[in-house]
Amino acid sequence: MRSIRLHDTRHTCGSLLAALDVHPRIAMQILRHSKIAVTMEVYTHVPSEATRRALRKLGKHLAPRTS
Questions:
Q1: What single-letter DSSP state applies at residue 43?
Q2: CA distance 18 to 57
Q3: CA-CA-CA-CA torsion for 56, 47, 9, 1, nearest 10 degrees?
Q4: 33, 39, 49, 37: which is closest to 17 by C-alpha?
Q5: Cα gap 55→37, rounded to integer Å
Q6: What are the extents of the domains in the chain?
Q7: What is the helix (H) or strand (E) element at residue 30, kind and residue range?
Q8: What would the pLDDT profile of 10-59 be if each residue is shown by its tens digit?
Q9: Does the global pTM surpass 0.90?
Q10: CA 20 – CA 59 distance, rounded (Å)
């Protein structure tokens, strides 16, 4: 079984917050960083608009369907 490091989940959280357009200062607080530069330069990977469109499409595909 593949293990997931806690550190990896912090990167994922930072990237998801950026993708959801959460203000960087709020993301910094959630990730408990003391410097905004750490949040923005190390933990946040901002997706392109094409990536966002693909993720929305994927989300719609994975969403439960109602009858």
A1: I
A2: 18
A3: 70
A4: 39
A5: 26
A6: 6-62
A7: helix 24-30
A8: 888 998 888 888 999 999 999 999 999 998 888 887 778 887 788 788 88
A9: no
A10: 13
